[in-house]
Amino acid sequence: MGERILDVKNLEIDFHTYAGEVKAIRDVSFHLDKGETLAIVGESGSGKSVTTKSLMGLLANNALVKGGQILFHDEDLLKKTEKEMQNIRGKDIAMIFQDPMTSLDPTMKIGRQIAEPLMKHKKVEKKKALAQALEILKLVGITDAEKRINDYPHQFSGGQRQRIVIAIALVCYPEILIADEPTTALDVTIQAQILDLMKELQEKIETSIIFITHDLGVVAGMADRVAVMYAGQIVEYGSVDEIFYNPKHPYTWGLLNSMPTLDSTNLEAIPGTPPDLLDPPVGDPFAARNPYAMKIDAEKQPPFFKVSDTHYAATWLLHPDAPKITPPEEIVRRQKLFEQLEAKKEI
Amino acid sequence: MRKYLLKRILYMVLTLFLVATITFFLMKLMPGTPYSNQEKMTTAQIKIMNEQYGLNKPVWEQYVIYIFDMLHGDLGTSFQYSNQAVSYLISSRIGPSAQLGFQAMVFGLFFGIIIGSVAAINHNTWIDTTATVVSIIGKSVPNFVLAVLLQYYIALKLGWFPIADWGSFSYTVLPTIALGVGPLAETARFIRTGMVDVLNSDYIELARAKGLSKFGIVYHHALRNSLIPLVTLIGPYTVALMTGSMVIENIFSIPGIGEQFVKSILTNDYPTIMGVTMLFSVGLVLIILLTDIVYGIIDPRIRLAGNGD
Amino acid sequence: MEEKIKLSPDSFQPLPREEELDNEKIAAPSLTFTQDAWRRLKKNKGAVISLFIIVIMVVVAFGSTPFIDNATLVKSAPNYANLPARIPGLDFINGLNGKLKVGGTWVNEYAQNGASDKYFWFGTDYLGRSLAQRIIYGTKISLIVALVATFFDLTIGVTYGIVSGWKGGKVDNVMQRIIEIISSVPNLVIVVLMLLVLKPGMTSIIAAIAISSWTTMARMIRAETLQLKSQEYVLAARTLGESPVKIALKHLVPNLSSIIIIQTMYTIPTAIFFEAFLSFIGIGISAPETSLGVLLNDGQKNFQFLPYQMWYPAIVLCVLMISFNLLGDGLRDAFDPKTRR
Question: Which of C5, C13, C22 sits opposite A294 (nearest CB)?
Answer without folding.
Answer: C13
